[in-house]
């Protein structure tokens, strides 16, 4: 974890995010907290990470998401050498999908 990132204010933000209970609540909160461009950048990086995990090429990812090769490289570095945050979320989503399919 980045020690510069770990602050009381960031803790408060994350605690607030953890109270959100639906996609609609997320839209309401994040539209208030972020600019449109910030939110679109977050979502673009997430889509890039999904596509990298699917072993898509940089060209395919750039065409589909509009991300630059620099952004794709940064996301790829996070996937390979980061804090495993993407992997944690993707695993939980896969587990949730499997549970939903069993129900």
Automatic annotation (TrEMBL):
Pfam families: Trp_repressor (PF01371). One of its GO terms (molecular function) is sequence-specific DNA binding. InterPro entries: Trp_repress, Trp_repressor/repl_initiator, TrpR-like_sf, YecD_YerC. SUPFAM superfamilies: TrpR-like. This is TrpR YerC/YecD.
């Amino acid at each position: 974890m980045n020690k510069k990132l770990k602050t009381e204010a960031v803790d408060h933000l994350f605690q607030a995010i953890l109270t959100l209970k639906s996609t609609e609540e997320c839209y309401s909160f994040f539209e208030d907290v972020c600019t449109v461009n910030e939110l679109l950048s977050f979502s673009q990086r997430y889509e890039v990470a999904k596509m990298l995990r699917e072993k898509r090429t940089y060209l395919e990812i750039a065409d589909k998401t509009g991300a630059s090769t620099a952004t794709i490289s940064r996301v790829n570095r996070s996937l390979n050498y980061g804090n495993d945050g993407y992997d944690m979320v993707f695993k939980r989503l896969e587990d949730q999908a499997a549970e939903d399919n069993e129900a």
